[in-house]
Automatic annotation (TrEMBL):
Residue numbers binding NAD(+): 147-161
Subunit description: Homodimer.
Cofactor comment text: Binds 1 FAD per subunit.
Family as reported in the entry's similarity comment: Belongs to the class-II pyridine nucleotide-disulfide oxidoreductase family.
Function: Serves to protect the cell against DNA damage by alkyl hydroperoxides. It can use either NADH or NADPH as electron donor for direct reduction of redox dyes or of alkyl hydroperoxides when combined with the AhpC protein.
Organism of derivation: Pseudomaricurvus hydrocarbonicus
Disulphide bonds in the chain: 135-138
Oxidoreductase listed as a keyword: yes
GO CC annotation terms, alphabetical: cytosol; protein-containing complex
This protein's name: Alkyl hydroperoxide reductase subunit F
Domain FAD/NAD(P)-binding: from-to ranges: 2-293
C-alpha cells in the first residue's frame, strides 16, 4: 500500500506530493487533470516571487518539480469512492477509481479542488480569460481604469464589486433575483460607493465581444422583459464556487457548502484522511494558499504515519 495517497493534481496536490516524497515515504497522486484550475488560467501575477507567469507554464514547472521525486503520478484517473478498511497491521483507506481499480493507503490527502459555477450563456467560454473572469483577487488589476460587471449579488458578488470598485472605473452588479442576498453591511458599503451600480431582476443572456476581447453584456430586465446592453471590458462571474466533493458525501464531514471541514492540521473527520486547497473550508481560494495547505496536510500525514504501530 501507499503511505500517502493524494487525490488531486492541482497546486495543493502537487505541493502535498513534494512534501510527502521528501520524507521518503511511498507517495502516489491520482489526478483527473494534472494542474487543475491553473490549466485554465491565462495570467498569474500573484504567485509570490514570480512577478508574472501563465497557467500552463506554472503547471509545467509544478509537474517537473513533482517528477524530481519518486512519486507515482496516475493521470487521467478519477476517484469515485473512499472507504476505511482494516489491514493486518491497522487501519487503511481505500480509494476506488472510475476504471474499477482500488488503491490502498495508510493515509490520504484529498485535494480535488473546486470549480466556478458558470453562467452558461453565449460568449462566456469564447471570452474566458479575454474579459470573462472568475477571480477578482487574481484578475481585478487587469481591468484598472475600465468598466466591468459582476454577475451575482450574493456575498462573493458584492465583495467582488467593492474590491473592484477601488481598481476599475465602474462596476455594474447584475443579480437575477429581485433582491440581493449579500449581508446588509456589504450592501450598504456597495451602495455608498459612487462607481457601483446595482441592477436586480436582471438575467444575463450573452457576453459580447469583438473577436479578441469582451466589449459588453446583454441582459433581460425581468420586470419589463426588455433586452438591454451594457458596454464594458470585463465580466466577473460570482455565482458560486462548487467544491469537487460529490463522491465524498456521507464519508467525510462537509460544511453546508459541500466543502471538506479540516482542522488547523488539515485533518478531516476521519483520522489519517487530510484535505488541502480549494476543496476545503479554507477562507480564501488561491494558488499560494492551496500550496501552503498541501504542505500542511503532507506534514500532518507524516506525523500521523510515525505514530502508527510498528509492523
Ligand atoms: P484545483 O486546482 O481545482 O485542482 C484539483 C485537482 O483535483 C485537479 O487535478 C483535478 O483534476 C483533480 N480532481 C478533482 N476531482 C477528482 C477526482 N474525483 N479524482 C481524481 N482527481 C480529481 N489563483 C491565484 O492564486 N492566482 C490567480 O491568478 C488565479 N487565477 C485563476 C483563474 C481562473 C480562471 C480560475 C478558475 C482560478 C484561478 N485561481 C487563481 C484560483 C486557483 O486556480 C485555485 O485556488 C487553485 O488552483 C486551487 O488549487 P487546488 O489544488 O486546491 O485545486
Amino acid at each position: 500500500p501507499y503511505e500517502v495517497l493524494i487525490v488531486g493534481g492541482g497546486p495543493a496536490g502537487a505541493s502535498a506530493a513534494i512534501y510527502s516524497a521528501r520524507k521518503g515515504i511511498r507517495t502516489g497522486v491520482i489526478a483527473q487533470r494534472f494542474g487543475g484550475q491553473i490549466m485554465d488560467t491565462v495570467a498569474i501575477e500573484n504567485f509570490i516571487s514570480v512577478s508574472a507567469t501563465e497557467g500552463p507554464k506554472l503547471v509545467a514547472n509544478l509537474e517537473q518539480h513533482v517528477m524530481d521525486y519518486d512519486v507515482d503520478v496516475m493521470k487521467a484517473q478519477k476517484a469515485v469512492a473512499l472507504r476505511q478498511s482494516n489491514g493486518a497491521d491497522g487501519k487503511r483507506v481505500e480509494v476506488t477509481l472510475e476504471n474499477g481499480a482500488t488503491l490502498i493507503s495508510k493515509s490520504i490527502i484529498l485535494a480535488t479542488g473546486a470549480r466556478w459555477r458558470e453562467m452558461n450563456v453565449p460568449g462566456e467560454q469564447e471570452y474566458r480569460g479575454k474579459g470573462v473572469a472568475y477571480c477578482p483577487h487574481c484578475d481585478g488589476p487587469l481591468f484598472k481604469g475600465k468598466r466591468v460587471a459582476v454577475i451575482g449579488g450574493g456575498n462573493s458578488g458584492i465583495e467582488a464589486a467593492i474590491d473592484l470598485a477601488g481598481i476599475v472605473e465602474h462596476v455594474t452588479v447584475l443579480e437575477f433575483a429581485d433582491t440581493l442576498r449579500a449581508d446588509d453591511v456589504l450592501q450598504r458599503k456597495a451602495r455608498s460607493m459612487n462607481n457601483i451600480d446595482i441592477i436586480t431582476a436582471a438575467m444575463s443572456t450573452e457576453v459580447l465581444g469583438d473577436g479578441q476581447r469582451v466589449t459588453g453584456l446583454n441582459y433581460t430586465d425581468r420586470a419589463t422583459g426588455e433586452e438591454k446592453t451594457v458596454a464594458l471590458a470585463g465580466v466577473f462571474v460570482q455565482i458560486g464556487l462548487v467544491p469537487n466533493t460529490d463522491w465524498l458525501k456521507g464519508v467525510v464531514e462537509l460544511n453546508p457548502r459541500g466543502e471538506i471541514m479540516v482542522d488547523s492540521r488539515g485533518e478531516t473527520s476521519i483520522p489519517g484522511v487530510f484535505a488541502a486547497g480549494d476543496v476545503t473550508d479554507s477562507a480564501y481560494k488561491q494558488i499560494i494558499i492551496s500550496m501552503g495547505s498541501g504542505a500542511t496536510a503532507a506534514l500532518s500525514a507524516f506525523d500521523h504515519l510515525i505514530r502508527l504501530p510498528a509492523q
